[in-house]
Amino acid sequence: MCKESLFKLIREEEVIIWIGSGLSTYAGYPTGKRLGEILLENLSEHEKSLINNGLTLPDLAEEFYRIKGNNRNQLIKILCQTFIDTKPQSTKLHDLLSIIPHFKTIITTNYDTLIEGSYKERAQVLYSQLQIPYIEKGKIQVFKVHGDLSEPRSIIITKSDYENFFKSESEKNLYWTVIKERLGTKNVLFLGYNLEDMNVSVIFDRITDVLGPDRKESFLIAPHLQRHKVANLISKGIHYIDLNAEDFFSELIQEIKTHIIEDLEAGKTSAETFRDFLLNNNLLPELKTEENRFRLRSLNGLDGNIEGKLNFTVKNDPEFIQKINEYFKGKKFGDF
Predict the structure, then answer these.
(1) pTM for the full predicted model
(2) In terms of DSSP bridges, do strands 283-290 and 293-301 run parallel, antiparallel, or are they unpaired?
(3) What is the DSSP string of 195-223?
(4) Which one of 49, 81, 265, 310 is most buried, counting C-beta atoms within 10 A?
């Protein structure tokens, strides 16, 4: 039931998607745990001996920073080599995401550029409060809450970075205010996350504290979570759906295709989202307004051709049915 409920909310444009590092692993990028290992690999044996085992990524990054003389240069270089200089092995999942215009807001803790790479000019990347006044309404807003490597000072990775971002004064930060407003008015879908990771738990616990029990529903999609982890999600008020990302996107796209016309005509999906979804599927719709509602008037392919299956019902009139048969057999031409 959780999956059906989530699909319905997405079709009604009521869901924000929050993307973690797990969604980028298929492209060859590391998880938070692997990133910590990469940091250690860039230390000498003596430097490694100065760091305790089992540290979380923020604590490990903090130690790395201090060992390097409180200098972030080497830390940022490693992040750039890992996420910018290394080309993705595939962009399949992010390309699937980009053809679903129902997600108007995307929040991510990832350092890679897979999201904006798939959306191209349709996305607007935001990582600073200085960018908030320039939000473009017609674009998909991608909030990179851990910063963007094009601006090294925006990067959040060390324990000190987290403490600075979530200190009480951050309530006055316009960037955080906008994110809080989005989270307060929409349902949230976590994808590519293990909420036991410290860097994720800190963020979600902060959201929970700010929004309180009146916040809207939250969902997490991940395959085959252990029972105790599912129990932890439930304790946080998060619905768990046992599904991998590829199957989720495939099922969701099919669900949208099945209901997109009725959702438009019922006013559950905006005309803009309807057009964008069809254009992303190489279809060109023509709409008409009727009693303050939009209805589909005609459908064409972007290149003038449509390939697919059309189901429709006709009245039980022998003469009418004969005309239809003649039309499809090519005995008559023109508009029908």
Answers:
(1) 0.88
(2) antiparallel
(3) TTSHHHHHHHHHHHHHHGGG---EEEEES
(4) 265
Hey, CA dihedral for 223, 228, 233, 234, is it positive or negative? positive
Cα Rg for the chain, rounded, in angstroms? 24
Looking at CATH, the fold of the domain delimited by 2-30+87-247 is given as Rossmann fold (3.40.50)
CA gap 289, 42 in Å, rounded? 62
- Vertex 166 angle, CA 139 and 201, to 5°: 85
What is the domain partition of the chain in residue ranges?
A: 2-30+87-247
Q: Which helix (H) or strand (E) holds 294?
A: strand 293-301
CA dihedral (155, 161, 166, 170) positive or negative: negative
As given in the structure block, the two tokens for residue 209 are: 């504290």
Which backbone phi and psi does 94 adopt, to 5 degrees? Answer: -70, -30
Q: Using DSSP bridges, classify how beta strands 105-108 and 15-19 pair: parallel, antiparallel or unpaired.
A: parallel
Mean pLDDT by 10 residues, the chain (336 residues): 93 96 94 93 94 90 95 96 96 96 95 96 94 93 95 93 69 80 90 69 68 81 87 83 94 96 94 95 90 88 82 86 88 78
